[in-house]
Design brief:
single chain; 2 domains; 4-stranded antiparallel sheet; 14 helices; disordered N terminus
């Protein structure tokens, strides 16, 4: 029950944090003025200029090497994702890989990135708790922000909740929590939780291993180290189209805000996770398809963003696709960046089109119609309302003050297959 209460507290605080972030103002920075001695007259003498010492390379993960902040180079090194094929020629996971566009939101708060990385690493290793050094203790709502960053970066972390002790040094992890809420007679959230469950450590480790094994096999079977970034992105896109089915979202699923308490309770009580979707049914929703594709490309060290926009859908003459897209008024897809060029990739539309084609020919291949699209080509299916309405999906409200959020690159040309 203590775990359950912590889960409810985290959810409540998470929602309150959104409101507080807009109301709170940044404290002014303290400026330290050094005192300088008076000017003295000295005789001019020749002085030897010492040779400049060679700049020492700092290991990517050695966060302790950056006391008091980071230079731009240090930050670039810190968020860099190593070549997954470099050491052995075979794909290797980077447990702490965070998509570049998400990491850059916290340029001024690298300690948030550090804790998010530690969360993901602990989950990959099936830990139920971990410690962080005192200099990286997070306060106020920053622990929730770090958790949110970890969840956006890794489906395994997204299937966990994180808590910490009062001193902020010790974190604990709950795997695949499931909560059952009820409403009281007045339609408000009841004080007591009717049921709460989570996986034991041994069961959680099996889920983690099974999911990573699935991703490892998918990459090994489809990608070669010598492939270009866009060739890798294309092969993963095609493999996922063939392997994963599309399923409709349940009422309230993948939502942060709800129109009523009833809708909120129904969503929470029917909670599933992307990892479960893949392992149990190989079928998942539109937002989770984009999240899965982003996760795999990030592991391959390919820049991939999950973006969202309101807009107008043009019917394609495919009943299920038209029904899914035509009634929503909003789309969620990926933008892949390689060799300085950006391309739209809509995995959900590709899968729905492929499932339609298979109803006529079981042996058909994906059309790859929705991979590597320019903005003009994408507009034949979905016209975004305007560039100003195009955002990173589930953009971090806490990071909006630190820099512009609407930095989704334009996709000028189609990828030449």
């Amino acid at each position: 029950m203590n775990n359950a209460k912590r889960f409810v507290t985290r959810l409540t605080a998470f929602m309150l944090a959104i409101c507080v972030s807009f109301l709170s103002s940044c404290a002014p920075k303290k400026v330290v003025v050094e005192e300088y001695p008076g000017i003295e007259t000295v005789e001019e003498t020749e002085t030897e200029i010492p040779e400049k010492e060679e700049e020492k390379e700092i290991p990517v993960e050695d966060f302790d090497a950056y006391p008091g902040g980071m230079t731009n180079k240090e930050f670039e090194d810190f968020i860099a994702i190593p070549d997954p094929f470099e050491e052995t020629g075979k794909f290797q996971f980077c447990h702490k890989a965070i998509p570049e566009y998400l990491a850059r939101q916290y340029r001024e708060q690298p300690e948030i990135i550090y804790v998010a990385k530690e969360m993901m690493d602990a989950v990959y290793n099936g830990k139920t708790e971990f410690d962080i050094p005192p200099e990286y203790v997070l306060t106020d709502y920053d622990p929730f922000i770090a958790e949110d960053l970890a969840k956006k970066s890794c489906p395994l972390a997204d299937a966990c909740t994180f808590g910490m002790d009062e001193d902020g040094l010790h974190y604990y992890i709950n795997y695949f929590p499931k909560v059952q809420f009820e409403l009281d007679e007045d339609g408000n959230l009841a004080d007591e939780i009717s049921d709460y469950s989570l996986l034991e450590q041994d069961e959680a480790k099996i889920m983690v291993e099974d999911f990573t094994d699935y991703i490892q096999t998918l990459i090994d079977n489809n990608v070669k180290a010598e492939d270009s970034d866009m060739e890798k992105a294309e092969k993963i896109f095609e493999a996922l189209t063939k392997e994963i089915s599309y399923r409709e979202r349940k009422n309230g699923e993948d939502q942060m805000f709800f129109e009523s308490n009833e809708e909120m309770v129904e969503a929470w009580n029917n909670q599933t996770y992307l990892v479960e979707d893949i392992l149990n049914d190989k079928a998942t929703t539109q937002p989770r398809l984009a999240m899965l594709y982003q996760y795999i490309l990030t592991q391959l060290n390919i820049e991939c963003m999950t973006v969202s926009s309101s807009g107008l859908y043009n019917n394609q003459g495919i009943e299920r696709l038209d029904n899914e897209m035509g009634t929503r008024g909003r789309n969620i897809w990926n933008v892949v960046v390689a060799d300085g060029k950006a391309y739209n990739c809509d995995l959900a539309c590709e899968i729905l089109t492929y499932e339609y084609d298979k109803s006529f020919s079981v042996d058909c291949e994906p059309q790859m119609k929705y991979f590597g699209m320019s903005d003009s080509t994408m507009a034949k299916t979905f016209i975004i309302s305007s560039r100003s309405s195009l955002f990173y999906y589930d953009a971090d409200l806490w990071a909006m003050e630190s820099g512009p959020m609407n930095m989704v690159p334009e996709c000028v040309e189609d990828y030449k297959h």
